[in-house]
Design a protein that fits this description.
It contains eleven helices and six strands. It is of the alpha/beta class and 207 residues long. Helix 4 crosses helix 6 and helix 9 packs across helix 10. The longest helix has 15 residues. The chain is globular.
């Protein structure tokens, strides 16, 4: 397996958990998109465990690039995002499975073994979110890029542009440009409108 996550401590946790199973071997770790692409070429892992929230280039974009070059690549997305729209986009881009980081630890082993065996895997919370997601929400979300979805999610959670940039590895100007693009694409003129639209996406719950 190749583990792709920008947090070294998190990767170490994955490694320790996965290597409890003697049949699972971690052969590489990557923290950036460039490292992930290079190590995929060099190592040709049986399974790639890939985070979505990477700085600069999103995990879903990395997934697309890997699948374009190696269509038989087996990729399991492992993300903090439990929202159905992210899972739908990842599966559409070629992921074999999607597991949320809120899942019980043992589910990571189950997910890796499932996708390695040719079966699709969705963690229960993500599968439920996908079932609840409406076709109208799918169409609205389809107008945004994966990075714009991440920015939107953080905007409605109350993060400012500078903090969003820091967390996503973007410059404040780039984060602000994403915000402007989101408002234009969704026809929103205020923070309240963005919140209402985000509720439709299932990115935040009604309160």
């Amino acid at each position: 397996m190749l583990l792709v996550d920008d947090h070294a401590v998190v990767r170490e946790g994955y490694r320790r958990l996965l290597e409890r199973d003697d049949s699972l071997i971690v052969i590489g770790e990557a923290a950036t998109a460039a490292d992930a692409m290079r190590m995929d070429v060099e190592l040709k892992p049986d399974v790639i465990v890939l985070d979505i929230g990477l700085p600069g280039v999103s995990g879903i974009e990395i997934l697309r690039r890997i699948i374009a070059r190696r269509p038989d690549a087996c990729v399991l997305m492992f993300s903090m995002h439990q929202d159905g729209i992210y899972a739908t986009r990842a599966i559409g881009a070629g992921a074999r499975g999607y597991l949320s980081k809120a899942s019980a630890p043992d589910l990571l082993i189950d997910a890796v073994r499932s996708v390695a065996g040719g079966r699709r895997y969705l963690s229960p919370d993500v599968e439920q979110a996908m079932t609840k997601q409406s076709s109208a929400a799918d169409q609205l979300a389809g107008t945004l890029s994966t990075r714009e979805l991440e920015v939107l999610r953080m905007l409605v959670q109350g993060y400012g542009i500078e903090e969003i940039g820091e967390r996503l590895g973007l410059s404040p100007k780039t984060a602000a440009n994403h915000q402007s693009s989101i408002k234009q694409k969704l026809g929103a003129n205020s923070a309240l409108q963005l919140i209402l639209i985000a509720q439709q996406f299932g990115l935040i719950t009604d309160r």
